[in-house]
Amino acid sequence: GENVEQHPSTLSVQEGDSAVIKCTYSDSASNYFPWYKQELGKRPQLIIDIRSNVGEKKDQRIAVTLNKTAKHFSLHITETQPEDSAVYFCAAPNYGGSQGNLIFGKGTKLSVKP
Amino acid sequence: DVKVTQSSRYLVKRTGEKVFLECVQDMDHENMFWYRQDPGLGLRLIYFSYDVKMKEKGDIPEGYSVSREKKERFSLILESASTNQTSMYLCASSLVGSGAHNEQFFGPGTRLTVL
To answer: How confident is the model at residue A86, as a pLDDT?
Structure first.
């Protein structure tokens, strides 16, 4: 089955700096890679996703890049703000069993210092 | 907006009790999921369901069972609660199609403490 590794586990940046979180996956057949953000005390929510037919996708200050050859994808946040402080989870498909599901990374706690 | 609700935000039970966690979604989603969230371990899939009365084991099904009698409702059952099942439990749902390729909408979570 799929294995997803996420790094770093914690990340602290100054407001205005950029933050990068990286994930690797094991199944070369995987073709959908979402990122979820979980603010303190709240539920995880999808913030951006990428499918394997593109190498990069942007949405305002966040972007995701995908390198299928190396089997890794990354979340980039530019001009970080205090409200970006949260735990971020990457995920990749698991095609084991009769139905697919997502395998999540262990999360990265991002702290943005004012 | 998709709304996923869970029956309790906080629950305290005793070892050996049978525990029911309920999840309801109002967007006619086919797929529903139960996850367990522990610090440093991320979101781990316990069970999921892709249709009424259908279920599939996730990564950590031991000690849990599920029930899906109606499309909008997915229940997680701890047959005999143990202290190592103290955790945050998150329910999620997604549209028809592969659960591997669709956005999942999460409930607010139930923090279960087993004494």
So the answer is: 98
Residues of A in contact with B48 (CB under 8 A): 99, 101
In the predicted model, what is the mean pLDDT of residues A54-77? 95
Q: Which helix (H) or strand (E) holds A22?
A: strand A19-25
Q: Tell if the CB–CB gap between A101 and B48 is shorter than 8 Å.
A: yes
Q: What is the pLDDT of residue A101?
A: 85
Q: What is the pLDDT of residue A52?
A: 80
* A88-B12-B31 Cα angle (round to 5): 50
The first and second tokens of residue B48, run together, are 């999921």
Find chain A residues with C-beta within 8 A of B44's C-beta: 104
Per-residue pLDDT band for B104 (boundaries 50, 70, 90) equals: very high
Helix, coil or strand: residue B83: helix
Please name the member of A31, A102, A107 whose beta carbon is closest to the beta carbon of B104.
A102
